[in-house]
Amino acid sequence: MLSFILRRLLIAVPTIILISVFVFALQKLLPGDPVLAMAGEERDPEVLEFLREKYRLNDPIPVQYFTWITNAMRGDLGISLRTNQPVLELIGQKLPVTIQLAVMSMIFALVIGIPAGILSAVKKGTVTDYVANVVALSGLSIPNFWLGIMLILLVSVKWQLLPASGYVPLSEDFGKSITTMLMPAFVLGTALAATLMRHTRSAMLGVLKSDYVRTARAKGLTERRVVLKHAFRNALTPIVTLTALLFGELVAGAVLTEQIFTIPGFGKLVVDAVFNRDYAVVQGIVLITAIGFIFMNLIADVLYVLLNPRLRGQ
Amino acid sequence: MSNIDAHRSPAEPDAPATTPLLEVRNFSLRFRGQSRDVVSGIDLRVSAGEILCIVGESGCGKSVTAMALMGLLPPDAAEIPSGSMVFEQTSYDLTRQVLPARLRGDRMAMIFQEPMTSLNPAFRIGDQIAEAVMQHTDCTKAEAMQRAGDMLEQVGIPAPRQRLREYPHQLSGGMRQRVMIAMALVNDPALLIADEPTTALDVTIQAQILDLIRDLQARRNMGTVMITHDLGVVAELATTVAVMYGGQIVERGPVSQVFDDPQHPYTIGLMSSVPKLTGPRTRLTTVPGTVPSIADMPQGCRFQSRCPFATQDCNTVPAMRDMGADHEVACHYAPLDSNISVVA
């Protein structure tokens, strides 16, 4: 197992290098001059030149890349052109917020999506199945921003049950932190629950037809045990893979929801950095996100092997 | 071995032969959305220690019958318009399609055609067998594993204690079928239903598995229903044989009677399609035509569309006729030799 993980990590290295090249190249290809953005009203050529020298923007592009990547490997992702804060520090501030949001959303998604998927597979063709499918389709079609606004109007403004927006760090007040994030996590989670439900349903439908499920029934096991142990265990593989991918997306793509609930997370950082041509920040974010994705995939692969005895020991 | 036998004593060998272990009456089955029955009013009877072989072409309804007796047919796929079952002196109404789960895997057990896919790939085989024990017996995991190991030994798996910890993919097809047999027999059932248990196996393995089934069946005095399309299997194992065609039993009787003196034109056709090692080499005879689909099944005798002797009379359903010595035939012209010569 350990050698498997090490091997997967080794394979990840060229992927990360490739991504870093892309990220860097994309930045250079984008129109617009960061120095102009930074200088604001100032148009003095000497000042601009000074800034270019300071941020080493006059170096040949390969040199710039190597400077960036070697610094990155030492944990130095550069300094935000806008706020003068180290990029790593910026990300370090925002990432926990987004991860908390992602984890809570994922819990919602799993707790709703998987049981709903199992239920609608077991009750295929019945009212339960149809209702679950209609709800899932609605979950997929309703835009997050609309659901978010509606929830704020109802739950916060009308019933005054939960705070409408903001963020409280976990370390400051655990309970308050959780309750503040309940609504945005629900909004993000329900959309993913729909996807998860559809995949769980189709995986379960396939597995429920299999011979070993028939064997389990022939042993006289209760239907509950047949479904939850013998069938679900084998349907888990695609669900695990999907969950890992969805989690990666959650970390990278909660922009809209973060905006609505004014959560100072990763999404807001990305948007601000892009709008302000804050190259260093964008590069850092993309790199960290990519590594996060690779990491999630690694976890999925490891789980995949753990779930499949056939893959063990190979 | 011994602790299995101690666990539940086998059926009394001297029990009167008049009370069969399993008796099925007037069983019919229909797939939802179809207008005709795929199995139409069949009767089955199996006593302890008896091997009943149900033989017939694919699609004649033998496998669905077996599944229905185990209560394994999904109610949304099939309905049972008529049928009742008496098993170990208890009556069950098959039409309700809710056989108690406690019967399955305990008093009646089943093995299937596909050993490669019938075991759950995610669990160790020891756990899969022990699970069957724990479902029906109040015992600890360790005791259940102990019995699983004993059972693996009985079905002839070498190094059974180590095998308990292996996964299905680590075993060959023949070994997997042995595991399936171990799983089916671990609770010492009174009735074993085997649905083409050797069809998916190599010929040499087939013989081993058949020997194993016969051996275990005899030692435990188990009633056995063996579903097969292979007359070789019938000759090898059967005490009695029931020949099915188009969802009906056309002939039934002790295996020697049916093999030596087949009366139904379909049985005769089946027998003469088997190659023989002795005697002159001749072209094999086949039953002409193919089995009609259920919707196209003729009214009356379902075999009439392929029967060389069919006449107007065959438009009515033939009743089972007693040929003596428990030999019964559903044909208007039985006994065939005397009646056909009269017509001709």
Write the layout of secondary structure elements.
The complex is a heterodimer of chains A (314) and B (344).
Chain A lengths: L1 H28 L4 H6 L5 H10 L6 H13 L13 H36 L4 H15 L2 H15 L15 H35 L2 H8 L4 H31 L1 H6 L5 H10 L3 H29 L7
Helix pairs in contact in A: 1-13, 5-6, 5-8, 5-10, 5-13, 6-8, 7-8, 8-10, 9-10, 10-13, 12-13
Chain B lengths: L1 H6 L14 E10 L7 E8 L4 E5 L6 H9 L7 E10 L2 E4 L14 E4 L3 H4 L6 H12 L4 H14 L5 H4 L9 H13 L5 E5 L7 H18 L2 E6 L2 H7 L2 E6 L2 E7 H6 L4 H8 L48 E2 L5 E2 L6 H8 L1
Parallel strand pairs in B: 3-8, 3-9, 6-7, 7-8
Antiparallel strand pairs in B: 1-2, 1-4, 4-5, 9-10, 10-12, 11-12
Helix pairs in contact in B: 4-5, 4-7, 5-7, 7-8
CATH fold call of chain A: MetI-like fold
The value of Rg of chain A in angstroms is: 24 Å
- Mean pLDDT of chain A comes to 86
The major sheet of chain A is characterized as: none
CATH class of the largest domain in chain B: Alpha Beta
CATH superfamily of chain A: MetI-like
Structural class of chain B: alpha/beta
List the domain count of chain B as a whole number: 2
From the 3D coordinates, which CATH architecture of chain A would you assign? Orthogonal Bundle
N-to-C span of chain B: 60 Å
Q: Which regions of chain A contain 5 or more consecutive residues with pLDDT less than 50? A: none
- So how many helices of chain A? 13
| DSSP, total strands of chain A | 0
Helix-strand sequence of chain B:
HEEEHEEEHHHHHEHEHEEHHEEH
Q: Write down the domain tally of chain A.
A: 1
What percent of residues of chain A are in strands? Answer: under 5%
CATH homologous superfamily designation of the largest domain in chain B: P-loop containing nucleotide triphosphate hydrolases
GO molecular function (chain A): dipeptide transmembrane transporter activity
InterPro entries (chain A): BPD_transp_1_N, MetI-like, MetI-like_sf
Protein name (chain A): ABC transporter permease
Membrane topology (chain A): Multi-pass membrane protein
